[in-house]
Design a protein that fits this description.
The chain is mainly β. It contains one helix and eleven strands; from the N terminus they run αβββββββββββ. The protein folds into two domains: 31 residues, no CATH class; 82 residues, OB fold (Dihydrolipoamide Acetyltransferase, E2P). The strands form three sheets. Strands 3-4-11-9-6 form a five-stranded antiparallel β-sheet, with no helix packed on it. It has a four-stranded antiparallel β-sheet with strand order 8-7-5-10, with no helix packed on it. Strands 1-2 form a two-stranded antiparallel sheet. A hairpin with a 2-residue loop joins β1 and β2.
């Protein structure tokens, strides 16, 4: 099977343009999936998606402050606490989590993006309701 490199390049450009972590296309019997894993702490400008209060520029994955370690949304989308309705939630108040554990899923353009914890800690606060729209950089949870 020959894979068209132009399609992969185009999908990669969509990843960058829409700040996605994964994209997939299916044509006839060919399925191409392009994904990336970002673990940088680069400040990026906030993008406003919904008419909610503007957020301060927060680093992509965490920010230490007086309240604890904030884990923020890497993309605009809809946040979900569990992998599917009725399933066990990824995190609950008081739960100890490790760096890399999934804390929520943010759906963007019908793609489910797992949001990993960028630090070890205990869940002090869950800032987002299940099914709530989130903005880039918006705090999802706070760790102690």
């Amino acid at each position: 099977m020959k894979i068209d490199k132009k399609i992969i390049k185009e999908l990669n450009e969509y990843l960058e343009e829409f700040n996605l972590t994964e994209i997939e296309i299916t044509e006839k019997d060919t399925k191409i999936k392009v994904s990336k894993n970002i673990r940088s702490n680069v400040n990026q400008p906030s993008m406003v998606a919904y008419n909610s209060q503007p957020e301060n520029n927060i680093s992509e994955n965490n920010q230490n402050n007086k309240n604890g370690i904030e884990i923020t949304s890497p993309i605009i989308g809809t946040a979900y606490h569990a992998p599917e309705p009725g399933a066990k939630k990824f995190v609950e108040l008081g739960k100890k989590i490790k760096k890399g554990d999934t804390i929520m899923i943010v759906e963007a353009m019908k793609t489910m993006n797992h949001v990993p914890s960028s630090s070890d800690g205990v869940v002090k606060e869950i800032c987002i309701d299940d099914g709530q729209p989130v903005e880039f950089g918006q705090t999802l949870i706070v760790l102690e």
